[in-house]
Amino acid sequence: MRIAVVGATGLVGQKILDVLEERNFPVSDLYPVASERSVGKEVAFNGNKYKVISMEDAINLKPQIAIFSAGGGTSLKWAPEFAKVGTTVVDNSSAWRMDENKKLVVPEINATELTKEDKIIANPNCSTIQMVVALAPLHKKYQIERLVISTYQSITGTGVKAVQQFEDERSGVDGEKAYPHEIDKNCLPHCDVFTENGYTKEEMKLVNETRKILKDDSIRVTATAVRVPVVGGHSESLNIEFANDFDVEEVKQLLKETEGVIVQDNLDNNEYPMPKYSHERDEVFVGRIRRDYSNPNSLNMWVVADNLRKGAATNAVQIAEYLAKQELV
Known about the structure:
Elements lengths: L1 E5 L4 H12 L6 E5 L8 E4 L2 E4 L3 H6 L4 E4 L3 H13 L3 E4 L15 H4 L9 E3 L3 H17 L1 E10 L6 H12 L29 H14 L5 E8 L6 E9 L5 H9 L4 E3 L11 H4 L5 E8 L6 E8 L3 H17 L4
Parallel strand pairs: 1-2, 1-5, 5-6, 6-7, 8-9, 11-12
Antiparallel strand pairs: 3-4, 8-10, 10-13, 12-13
């Protein structure tokens, strides 16, 4: 298949190339795309070097699928242009996620809703993806009424500049800043920008995207998103109130049977999910599964995943795989 990767030189773009290669996606022609200043640079894929091309050149080549990871403004401008020539766009930005005419897809949950007419498909926010993979089977069985989320999000979610700031601070270098405060040996309750309601955009993504993917606007959701000096992945503490009561062992078994989930919950051996062990993995890890004794029908659990992989690149490639397998492109 003719595949374009838009934003191929960024952290997520590079990870998309890695995942396409690892999963043996049937790429006949690869078109790496980036900003004008990156045109002519080379990226590696499957043992070969490919020169970065411009957006216009990629559109003229009419790829069957274009996977975007280049920011919301770029997606709003260029995704429709790709769609006009028949390309199906899988977009990693927030640009199309809450558009009522665009599908917000986590393949394990709702890929079957996709059709040939879906030319722009939204990839959810990284922290939303890992969470809903674990929540979907529980919602189906017990019906979620309220969700309280606290995230502990890797600096890689901010991008290359954030990783450089972290490394500079570790090395005692006064360099360019991605954050308004130091991140090394610190936690910032500040993911994305603040909105008028006092929440950040990241927190509101968790609220709105969760409802859209689970198809239930009645779920009450509140979130606090925190940036932590971690490279490996995002962690989330979830407090879930259900309409119906549950058995904790049944919950664990249900999660063990869920595609894409690994349960790590052996307290005798200090076994629980940690970002250190999710790094470069595609699964969602769930542990610390326990009843909340302060509130009826309520459960606590801890969810961890690599935000660059399942939280972005892998989920997007899985969508592309579904499109190819079902001959939707």
